[in-house]
Design a protein that fits this description.
Elements: H1 8-20, H2 38-51, H3 57-68, H4 74-84, H5 91-115, E1 119-120, E2 123-124, H6 126-152, H7 156-182, H8 187-214, H9 217-241, H10 254-257, H11 263-271, H12 274-286, H13 291-304, H14 306-326, H15 332-346
Antiparallel strand pairs: 1-2
Helix pairs in contact: 2-5, 4-5, 4-8, 4-15, 5-6, 5-7, 5-8, 7-8, 8-9, 9-14, 9-15, 11-13, 11-14, 14-15
Length: 349
């Protein structure tokens, strides 16, 4: 039995209600067939659980909570399948998958603190349950465990690949904050932000996986580009959810409320007449918490064709990723990767 913090009776009751309503069920309904890596995923799960273990009881309680509410785990799947393109998964493959998941989880914990988010994937965030100070320390702990996992196993190439991704993610986040304040974001800067914030980690996942079995720099570079293109498509798809009605774990219009200039909105601002553009910017700056005003902005984006434009760009990045994949060995892993890439753009949440 695990002790949870003081916010508790109502929170635990709410979590139990969520559990009984299926919130703890796997998130990848209609997912690609991962049967070829089923055993590999089991090995990864075991190694990941071992990787987060701590001698501190509080840390163990929190990591237990994190593991039991894990999401789609797309990145470890990309690591393993990228490895399987060039040979059977190795210990290096599982270490790389664990490192990717540790770094990804650490960034999510820190993001929730920065964004003051109380929920993540329909669960209470770490900072909501244990407060900001604990959440920051947990994120730091996960980051350090990932780095040590690589160093202890002499995985220096993988560590370099992933460390570069963490650097890019930080730069992308800061660039987005800077541009959101000034609201002067063009399409090129938007791509730079999502390439750093989202695509860099998926690129590193594919690159680290490929390296673990190929030990080939050229192949690793190509697979990183494949991951980057897939990550770009993934993020644009995520941005499109903000203009839909599906329950995707975040409120519709949330990016607008946070003054995030995503591709559909950037396109709309570029196409809008002077008066409409001025009104949209005013709402973003001063009325971004007003539901009716946010709804009006969403309607304007739809009317301007911003949704369709973003969708076309998303599919273009997807097709670029698939073109790179077509040049890789034609095997079961290749087929599964293709299905996984298509899932990132076809998913409904």
């Amino acid at each position: 039995m695990f002790f949870y913090p003081h916010c508790c009776k109502n929170i635990i009751l709410s979590v139990k209600i969520r559990q009984s309503n299926g919130y703890f069920a796997p998130e990848m309904a209609n997912q690609p067939d991962f049967s070829i890596i089923e055993q590999d995923l089991e090995v990864f799960e075991k190694r990941f659980r071992e990787a987060v273990k701590s001698k501190a009881p509080l840390l163990d309680r929190i990591t237990h909570y994190i593991i039991n509410r894990k999401g789609k785990q797309l990145r470890p799947r990309f690591v393993i399948l990228s490895a399987r393109l060039f040979g059977p998964a190795t210990i290096s493959t599982f270490n790389a998958a664990s490192l990717v998941e540790l770094l990804h989880t650490a960034t999510l914990v820190h993001d929730d603190v920065v964004d003051e988010a109380m929920e993540r994937r329909s669960f209470f965030s770490i900072n909501a349950l244990w407060k900001n100070k604990v959440a920051v320390l947990v994120g730091d702990y996960l980051l350090s465990k990932g780095l040590l996992l690589s160093l202890d196993n002499n995985e220096h190439k993988v560590l370099h690949i992933l460390s570069d991704a963490v650097r890019k993610m930080s730069e992308g986040e800061l660039l987005q904050i800077e541009k959101s304040r000034k609201l002067n974001l063009d399409e090129g800067v938007y791509y730079e932000i999502i390439r750093s914030k989202t695509a860099s980690l998926l690129a590193s996942a594919c690159g680290a996986g490929a390296w673990s079995t190929s030990m080939d720099d050229e192949i690793t570079t190509k697979m990183m580009l494949f991951g980057e293109k897939t990550g770009m498509a993934f993020q644009i798809k995520d941005d499109l959810f903000d203009y839909g009605t599906a329950d995707v774990g975040k409120p519709t219009g949330n990016d607008i409320k946070e003054k995030k200039l995503t591709l559909p909105l950037i396109y709309t601002l570029n196409k809008a007449d002077k008066e409409t553009k001025k009104k949209i910017i005013y709402i973003l700056k001063n009325q971004n918490k007003d539901k009716d005003r946010v709804k009006w902005v969403i309607e304007e984006v739809n009317k301007a064709g911003g949704i369709e434009y973003a969708r076309e760009k998303m599919l273009a990045f997807r097709d670029e990723a698939l073109a790179i994949l077509a040049g890789m060995p034609a095997n079961e892993a290749n087929k599964a990767l293709e299905a996984l890439v298509r899932y990132t753009t076809d998913r409904s949440y």
